[in-house]
Amino acid sequence: MILKSSGFKLAAAALVGVILFILPRPEGTKFKLSGNGADQLGQSVSNYFSMQQTDSGNAVILTAKAPGTVQARAQYLTEQAQTMGLSQVNVDYVDGMSPKAKRFLSMLAVLVILFVVHVLPDLCHCPGQGGADKTIGVLYH
User: Fold this and answer.
1) Are residues 39 and 15 located together in one domain of the fold?
2) CB neighbours of 59 closer than 8 A, spacing ≥ 6?
3) What CA dihedral angle connects 31, 33, 38 and 44, to 10 degrees?
4) What letter would DSSP give residue 96?
5) Is the pTM of this model over 0.90?
6) pLDDT block averages, 10 residues each, the chain of length 141
7) Domain identity same for 7 and 50
8) Taking Cα atoms as reference points, which of 18, 96, 16, 106 lies closest to residue 62?
9) Are residues 15 and 57 in the same domain?
10) Residue 125 lies inside a defined structural domain of this protein
11) Is residue 139 part of a domain?
12) Domain check: are 77 and 108 in the same one?
């Protein structure tokens, strides 16, 4: 049966991973700027972000005024920092999902699907006589 073949299981898991990877990533609305020049970058993008100082030194929290626009993204903040010559400023996500987290989620989904699909046929297979399946410890009647 095609549903029990390893190729089909692998293709189904890969398809789920690709679908998760293609879905739009929630960008978030809050970003943390840290490093030398974080205040300067926060002031330069004040048209698009509201700025809050944090207790920890030079860190600044920016909240997007118009979420979903091109200027309300981490990539825009990184580009602005490079344009201004502020290479020491780090842009981190406070809410939303980073690209690294999205890749991790896709790979985790593939591994979970592979594990679940691999175990399901063993659970559904019932031998003709009663007994215990010693590989997974399930008792049949």
Assistant:
1) no
2) 32, 33, 34, 38, 53
3) -20
4) S
5) no
6) 78 90 84 86 88 76 86 88 88 84 91 80 54 53 52
7) no
8) 96
9) no
10) no
11) no
12) no
Q: What digits encode the pLDDT tens for the residues 46-81?
A: 899 988 877 766 688 899 888 878 888 888 998 998
Q: Give the pLDDT score at 141.
A: 52
Model pLDDT, residue 3? 67
Q: What is the DSSP string of 2-40?
A: GGGSHHHHHHHHHHHHHHHHHSPP---SEEEEESTTHHH
For the chain, what is the domain count? 2
The two tokens of residue 101 are 């987290």
**Position of tokens 């739009």?**
24
Same domain, 34 and 65: yes
CA-based nearest residue to 61, from 83, 85, 79, 77 = 77
Range(s) of the domain holding residue 107: 1-25+99-114
